[in-house]
Specification:
This protein is of the alpha/beta class. It is built from eight helices and seven strands; from the N terminus they run βαβαβαβαβαβαααβ. The chain has a seven-stranded parallel sheet, sandwiched between helices. Helix 2 links the parallel strand 2 and strand 3 (59-63). Helix 1 (18-29) crosses helix 8, helix 4 (102-130) runs parallel beside helix 5 and helix 6 packs across helix 7 (206-216).
């Protein structure tokens, strides 16, 4: 299927590895030029080089922390009016909520709610003016089914989801769509960090814990980042203009619900 976005411009946040990189690669394969962000300049340049070599599209690296005003400015200076925005940021640490400090809550809200909103604010009016825009926020399956040991993420990402639900319906008439992708367990470094404490308590390795979780999933496995990237590319396409304010769960059927 031709997604109809060849020649478009995108900012993909936190794209040096994992799900962010998979989204960037999927868009590049559709002919979308990219600005990708990440904190580690060396890893980000390596990711940009890999995407360029495999797709031939223009990829510029905006090294910096997307959760800071300076990091956002660096990305927006390179692409002030993107057609596509993929909001993504590393999740806050897991743990017992009794141990979370005010500073940890503030950091989580800044990274996983306020910073994506700031990026949306920066790009939404140019998207409206050109009558095309696609914004995809990478959140978490915990928005639908909370995970006990990641309370910081549960709270911050749910706040973003509530904000998006209202805004998406205000801008849809301008062919600007905002949707969320909710990953379940995917084969990424983040998954290993999430299960590390539970694995240690059980006397197992993170990989053993992930394998056990995979067996319990209806799909019998964890997801691969490339699958996630493909879903993201479709939500960014010309074919997806009637998908508005939705939360697409990619979890192999792990969330047990009729609707």
């Amino acid at each position: 299927m031709d997604l109809g976005i060849h020649g478009r411009k995108a900012i993909v946040c936190a794209a040096s590895k994992g799900l962010g990189f998979a989204c960037a690669m999927a868009l590049a394969r559709e002919g979308v030029s990219l600005v990708i962000t990440g904190r580690n300049a060396e890893a980000l340049e390596a990711a940009a080089a890999k995407i360029r070599s495999e797709t031939g599209v223009s990829v510029r690296a905006a090294a910096g922390d997307i959760t800071s005003p300076e990091g956002r400015a660096t990305a927006l200076d390179l692409c002030p009016a993107p057609d596509i925005l993929i909001n993504n940021a590393g999740g806050p640490p897991p743990g017992d909520f009794r141990e979370f400090t005010d500073a940890m809550w503030h950091d989580a809200l800044n990274a996983n709610m306020l910073s994506p909103i700031a990026m949306i604010k920066a790009v939404i009016d140019p998207m409206i003016a050109q009558n095309f825009g696609r914004i995809v926020n990478i959140t978490s399956g915990s928005v639908k089914s909370p995970i006990a040991n990641i309370g910081l993420s549960n709270g911050a990402r749910t706040g973003l989801t509530g904000f998006v639900a209202g805004l998406a319906r205000q801008v849809a008439r301008h062919n600007v769509t905002i949707n969320n992708l909710l990953p379940g367990p995917f084969n990424t470094d983040r998954l290993r960090v999430t299960v590390a404490k539970a694995a240690e308590a059980a006397g197992r390795t993170a990989d053993e814990m992930i394998a056990a979780r995979a067996k319990e999933n209806p799909a019998g496995r964890v997801g691969e980042p490339e699958e996630f990237g493909a879903a993201c590319a479709f939500l960014c396409s010309n074919r997806s203009g009637y998908i508005v304010g939705q939360n697409l769960l990619l979890d192999g059927g792990g969330f047990n619900s009729t609707m």
